[in-house]
Specification:
Blueprint (H helix, E strand, L loop, with lengths): L10 H10 L7 E4 L6 H13 L7 E5 L4 H9 L3 E4 L13 H9 L4 H14 L10 H14 L4 E6 L6 H13 L7 E3 L14 E7 L5 H9 L4 E5 L6 H19 L7 H20 L9 E3 L2 E5 L8 H9 L7 E7 L4 H18 L2 E6 L7 H7 L4 E8 L6 E2 L4 E2 H18 L3 E7 L5 H9 L1
Parallel strand pairs: 1-2, 2-3, 4-5, 4-6, 6-7, 10-11, 10-12, 12-15
Antiparallel strand pairs: 8-9, 9-15, 13-14
């Protein structure tokens, strides 16, 4: 069976999912711990219409007592899976949220949990500290961050590369608060060992050994590298449990609560305010334009030169300091073409600044690195990219389109970052095709 995750409000991505997964051959899993996640509610409204209001095409995964559970009961969903409310969202890979889709695509959940259970016993309180894998890893990560190596950079062999995206949310959302945090760097192109600053610690998720030579070079250059051998697919459960324990321990070393996400709600509240204002006036407040030309508008929280796009970019990149990171926050459809351009942008930004780089697709990253962006250390430069959609679709019953919701989420994110005094440049493109013009301007 095909399996896909739709975690976006971008209209192009929603339309693509609709084309690839028509109701007559699709079971839709509506998964939300709170039951009220904005993008989940919008996508449910859309696909409910597509399915002709037939609840047999839907299952819900949610905590007991949520509005989603009530809605699923009213609409006659095929099944509602009530998850353990004591487990936070980013720690729930081994609960219903991970196990239900795993079972449906043919993974043996009992075998998966047996693997996790083995690691659970290794991490038990009665184990000596030096033999406790979660405690040791957490102590290393926490102390590394305290010592200035707070950029946790993942190298991952191809077959296990998606694990990095899961770890990104786990580490960033857990640790990034009170002006502290560990920045997970996932999917960044590997550079020469000597070009990395002393703010990095590396974790190699090893399956085929394709990065063995790079790891050896990193170690010889004096960088700390942790290697995790993942012999088979089911060993992913071992890493799920190890890293969940380690993240909690690392947060204890940092002195932050691993299990809250106070700044995520702020962005949500600002987005709701944007939507409420839109419903009343039918327009969104985009803010004051800093520069405009050739179909691109620039907005910023800092003073930048405005003699053309290249000048705007040059002055923004020039703000980078030692120990900073550059975050590309793209409110664009998540597809191979966009990802390739963003990867090129990311490479150039690292070359020009020497800083660690991250890429996040909005609104997905708001639930992961978004917490660290706002609650973590003020060392980030944020390049936010928005674009007018080629075509838009209405969200049934919500009085707005997916494009409007996505833009409101981007503006809420921008405003929340601005409220924390972050350095931001937002580039709004009149069409997504201008991504190549942006890339060329950055090169120049």
């Amino acid at each position: 069976m095909q399996f896909s995750i739709l975690d976006s409000t971008d209209p192009a991505q929603v339309l693509k999912a609709s084309q690839d997964f028509p109701p007559e051959r699709t079971l839709y899993l509506v998964a939300s711990k709170s039951g009220g996640t904005a993008e989940i509610s919008a996508n449910l409204a859309y696909f409910w219409e597509q399915a002709g209001h037939d609840g047999s095409y839907f299952c819900a995964i949610t905590d007991p007592g949520t509005t989603l559970e009530a809605l699923a009961n009213v609409r006659g969903f095929r099944k509602t899976f009530r998850a353990n409310p004591g487990v936070g969202g980013r720690y729930s890979a081994l609960t219903h949220f991970g196990l239900v889709p795993a079972a449906l695509i043919g993974i043996d959940p009992e075998r998966l949990l047996d693997k996790a259970g083995w690691m659970m016993r290794q991490c038990a309180a009665e184990q000596s500290g030096a033999r406790n894998p979660g405690l040791v890893l957490g102590a290393i990560l926490g102390q590394a961050a305290v010592s200035g190596r707070d950029k946790l950079t993942f190298l991952a062999d191809g077959s296990v590369a998606p694990l990095g995206a899961w770890l990104e949310q786990l580490v960033a959302e857990s640790s990034g608060k009170l002006g502290k945090g560990i920045l997970p760097v996932d999917g960044e192109q590997v550079a020469d060992a000597g070009s990395y600053a002393a703010d990095r610690i590396f974790a190699y998720l090893r399956r085929e050994g394709q990065f063995d030579a790079q790891v050896k070079a990193l170690e010889q250059a004096g960088h700390p590298v942790l290697t995790f051998n993942i012999a088979e697919d089911y060993d992913l459960a071992v890493e799920f449990y190890r890293w969940e324990v380690a993240t909690a321990v690392a947060c204890a070393v940092l002195g932050v609560n691993a299990f809250d996400q106070p700044d995520v709600q702020d962005a949500k509240d600002r987005t709701k305010a944007k939507i409420k204002a839109y419903v009343q006036s039918r327009q969104l407040d985009e803010g004051q334009v800093l520069w405009e030309g050739a179909g691109i508008k620039a907005y910023s929280t800092v003073s930048l030169s405005t003699n053309g796009l290249e000048d705007v970019l040059k002055s923004f990149v020039g703000l980078a300091r030692k120990g900073d990171y550059v975050a590309l926050n793209a409110y664009l459809p998540r597809n191979p073409e966009t990802a390739a351009v963003l990867a090129d942008l990311r490479f150039i930004l690292r070359e020009k600044t020497g800083c660690a780089t991250t890429v996040g697709f909005g609104p997905r990253f708001l639930h992961s690195t978004g917490q660290l962006h706002k609650g973590g250390p003020g060392t980030g430069l944020f390049l936010q990219i928005t674009a007018d959609p080629a075509s838009d679709i209405e969200i049934p019953g919500q009085g707005m389109s997916f494009g409007t919701l996505e833009r409101a989420q981007a503006l809420g994110d921008y405003e929340a970052l601005e409220g924390r005094g972050r350095r931001i440049l937002r580039l709004d493109l009149s069409s997504q095709g201008l991504m190549h013009a942006l890339l060329n301007a950055l090169k120049r």
